[in-house]
Every structure is written in structure tokens, then in C-alpha cells.
Amino acid sequence: MSSNSKDTKPRVYKVALRGEALMDHPRWNKGMGFTAKEREDFGLTGRLPHMINTIDDQCQRAFDQLSMHESDLRKNDFMQSMRSQNWVLYYALMHRHLKELMPIIYTPTEADAIAQYSHLFRRSEGLYLSFPDQENMEIDFLEQVAGRDIDLIVCSDGEAILGIGDQGVGISTAKASVYTIIGAIDPSKTLPVALDVGTNNEDLLKDPLYVGWREKRVRGEAYDKFIDRFVQLVRKHKPHSLLHFEDFGVTNAQTILERYRDQHAVFNDDVQGTGAVTLAALSAAIGVTKSKLADQRIIIFGAGSAGLGIAHQLRDAIIAESVDAGEEISREDANKRFWLVDRFGLVNDALQNAGKVRVGTEEFVRAENWVGEVHTNEHGSVSLLDVVKHVHPTVLIGTSTSPGTFTEEVVRTMSEHVERPIIFPLSNPSRLVEVQPQKAFEWSSGKALLATGSPFADIKTEKGKYVIAECNNALIYPGMGLGAILSAGKSLTDRMIIAGAQRLAQLAPCFNTHDPSDALLPDFGDSPAVNFEVGVAVCERALEDGVAGNGWEEWYEGDKTLKKGWKEEVRKRAQERAWMPVYGEYIYDENGEK
Ligand SMILES: NC(=O)c1ccc[n+]([C@@H]2O[C@H](COP(=O)([O-])OP(=O)(O)OC[C@H]3O[C@@H](n4cnc5c(N)ncnc54)[C@H](O)[C@@H]3O)[C@@H](O)[C@H]2O)c1
Ligand SMILES: O=C(O)C[C@H](O)C(=O)O
Ligand SMILES: [Mg+2]
Prior knowledge:
The chain is α/β, with parallel strands linked by helices and 594 residues long. The protein has 25 helices and 18 strands. A seven-stranded mixed sheet has the order 9-8-7-10-11-12-15, with helices on both faces. The chain has a five-stranded parallel sheet with strand order 2-4-3-5-6, with helices on both faces. 49% of the residues are buried. One of its GO terms (molecular function) is metal ion binding. Its cofactor is Mg(2+); Mn(2+).
């Protein structure tokens, strides 16, 4: 697998900052890593102890300091603080301890850090756009982006953070830094944005230290106009950037995606990223069961942003697979492979008549009620267990935020009817998982094929171990972003997303060996190299489909045919673009960068 991690040549920068201003800027700061010449040229000699450290020395010192903190939340806080002081050191440390530190800076610890955001707050990062200050939005936006080359904007309105609900301001910085850690996107070209439209979280509203706008969430037209103002600014000033939406409430997530997807390159991670990574894991799992996507009976438990995103992605893949096989399945028929179960039970016509079916789920409403044969749940409608009993699903996916809902009876019943039950409890953080993987393994007598949303330890088995794949959108979205940026197209199309998911699946250990004890997805430790490949695949598809933008025209002969060597060119551009955490060489220049 080609990796982007070999290119570690130091770059030369002309820098206009001196002294404290240089050391205070996380992009430029090198701490004890400034060379003797830089110390002289930039007025740093008296500001630093005598020794000069290598980045390895600095990583060692930082890691030792990190290890002194006992709780994961304190470690997260330490890492956050390091990121606001020295980017190269932060990312170099992440590269060296990727697997160990991802759960610290990202899921599951990030959930606690976001819940505590106002209390852990020290220094702002990125852009904060608040509803009451919207008249100033363009000025605030330009203050941060004018003259900057921005590839990627990650925004959130904080309404549905992971599985922990409305948290006001907070997630976009962690999500943006994962683009750099895994996708090698230059952090100076990313912008995290908190869109503060208030919060309905009573605890936050009552908290005297809450840092966001202390009002109830703005809804309806006023909300739409605020979001539109922001999106139009992005389109006007950064037309070639990718705009990533994270953790919006389910209705807004779908609406915003549909509204803007033909106008700008937009990406909703919870919908599309989750759909793509789940498709990849499922493709590997059905390699073990030696079946086709179209043969599956799929229950999705929790029909919100993630659940619906998965349903759409898998449905589209079923149709695409059938077209390739020359036996086209209609959209209506493909929808019949799915049973959605939400808070009120099976999404069926009885629920629809009672007005309890969410917009976006209509296509999947089932006619069957199995009246008389079923136990109803506490809402008087068909429960998950009864759907399992009647449908005999091959696949059970959890995106419900409701822990423990894949009970022993659910797993055992599912296992009675299929040889290899495919069970993906994807809710984050770990404490919200629908079933502990160890339990699902036991209750299925070791037959279940498992993937979870947060990291879980391997399961010890008689033969060795069973590896639990981490099916988290972070395993694919950095590559999706890289591919979209590389292709410079006006949109990130469904076909580009499917190409990325297919490449991810091909890189899963289990996809090639068909050995069920191998993981259904690549290891997070390999995610930088894996996402490089995903990025290449996404960009290749954009070129093949003629939707790539600026800079690719010269690679077409006539209208459609690509010139020889185009694939090598995609890889070359991806490699050249990769940002690596190594210090550059600085030359003082009063007209240089700041
Ligand atoms: N693994 C990943 O990559 C990934 C990606 C996105 C989301 N997620 C996780 O998935 C979960 C859902 O996220 P989301 O953004 O879709 O949230 P969401 O709020 O949009 O959706 C949750 C859905 O679950 C339903 N629900 C709640 N309690 C239920 C219950 N007891 N039974 C059945 N349904 C119930 C809700 O009505 C809602 O429709 C979160 O825990 C999130 O962290 C994981
Ligand atoms: O952020 C994550 O860990 C994955 C996902 O986007 C989620 O909302 O849970
Ligand atoms: Mg999310």
C-alpha cells in the first residue's frame, strides 16, 4: 500500500513573526526545536533555555508529561492544550502513538470533553459564529480566512453530538484535527466553525460558566436563514473548499445536505461518512457469509441521521451491485430489504397513520404488522425482538444511542435463524453501545460478525483472538475529504462516496482472507495509509465520471477520455499535498507569512 508518510523533507517558509508572537502561534511555534540560527534571526535567544531538542526529544517529553495524567479526560485536556501551542509537536505525537491516542482525542473521550467544554475552556480555536452577532458574520469570517488558502471547513451546530445530544458549542475542532492526523490535510488549510444557535440543554442554560449563547435553540426560518448566510459566505469566499457538517439534529442534517449538495462540495459525516464506513464493513462481512448485498435482510435500529444515512447508502449499493450483475433491482424492491425500528418500534403503516413516522423514513415504511402474533413494546407498537422473530435478519445495525437494547434474547433469536449474524452496534460513545461485543459473541456462540462505533478490546477465543472492527466514520471521512479536495469538483457525488467505501472494504483484512476472526475493517493504526488510498479512489472516480474541477482539464483527450498516466498523476498530487508533522525551515521576511 502506498503511504503518504515518507515525504518528510523540511519545507522552507518566509515568516514575518518574531519573538513572542512567533512562539505564541501554534502553526509556527517549535518550542525547544528552534535551531540556533532561527533563535538568532527571530529574536528568540534569550527566550529559550540553551539546549536545542529534536522533535523526537520533544515527543518523548510530551509523552512523559501526558502519562502523568491518570484520567482519559485529563489526557484529552493535555492534548488539547498542546494543540493550541504547537501543531507539529501535537501531530508528531499523534503519529507516533496513533492507536493509543485516538481514543483520547476522539471517541469515546471526546464526548466527555465536549460535555465539559465550558469548564475545560482555556483558549478559543477556530471560528465561532453566534446567532445574535450574525450581522457581523462576513467580517468575522473574513477576519479568519481572508488571504488564507482554505481547503476544508468543518462546522457543527452541536445539536446531536455523538450520542449525548445537545451540547451547544464544541465538536468541530476534534473532527477537523482528525483530517490532519489521518488524511494529512494541512491544518493551516482547515477551519473548524461552531455555529451557535442556542441550546435546549437545560443544564447548560443554567450553568453560569456556559460559554455559548444562553438562549433556546433557534428553529424554522430564522435558523435556515442563519445557516444559509454562512453557506453563502463559504461559497462566495472559499468556492473550492469542502464543507463538512457534523452532528446536526436529524431533520436539519438531511435538509441541509439536500439543499446545498448541488451548489457546493458538502459532506454530512453522520449521514454519508457513517453510511460509507458501514457499507465497507458489511461488504467484508458478506465475503465471509458468501452472500450478496441484495440477499440481506437488514434491521436498522435507530432511524436518525446515522441510521437513515446507512439505509440510503446500503440501498444505493444494492442497486449498483444489481446493475453491475445485469439483474437490475428497482429502488422500491431494494427498499424492501430494510426494516427500520425507531423509538416507537417498527416503522410501519400503523405508526405512519398515527403520525409518528419521521420525514425521510417514508420509503421504508413496512405494511406488515403481524397483528395478533406480536408483543408490543412500551409504546404499543412492534418491538425489535418481534421484528427479529419475524424477519430473521441477516444484519442488525444499531444507531439508537440506547445502550443494552440488543438483549440476550434478541441476539440468541437472531442467531437461531442465520448461520453468521452480522451485528454492528454503532452508537457512540462506548457506554451507549447497543450490546457489548463480548456478550454478542457469547450469545451467538461465537458466530456473530461484529463491528462497533467506538474501540473495543479483542475477544480471546480458544483459537486465539477475535478482532472487533471499529466502524467509525473517522476511518473514511478524512479520505473522502482528501479525495474531494484533490478532485476540486463542485460536489462530492454518491458515486465518489461508493468508490471510497469500496476501496476501504478491499483493504480490510477479512475482505481478502474471508476468515471471520480477522477484522471486518482495517485497523485504526493503519488509517493514514488506508485513507490515502480512499482519497485516491474518490478522486479517480471523480475523474472517470467527468466531475473533477480546476486543474484536471489538461488530463482529458477530447471530452471524456483520460490521458495515459492519469492514475499516476492522482497519486502524485495526493503525495505532494500531504502535510507531515515535521518542522519547516524559517527565514525571516517582513513580507512573509504570519
Ligand atoms: N460509528 C459511527 O461512525 C457513528 C456515526 C454517526 C453516529 N453514530 C452514533 O449513532 C448514534 C445515533 O446518532 P445520530 O446522529 O443518528 O442521532 P439521531 O438522534 O439522529 O438518531 C438517533 C435515533 O435513535 C432513535 N432512538 C432513540 N432511542 C431509541 C430506542 N430506545 N429504540 C430505538 N430507537 C431509538 C431516535 O428516535 C433517533 O431517531 C449516536 O450514538 C452516534 O454517536 C456513530
Ligand atoms: O464522532 C464520532 O466518533 C463518530 C460519529 O460522527 C458520531 O457522531 O458518533
Ligand atoms: Mg458525528
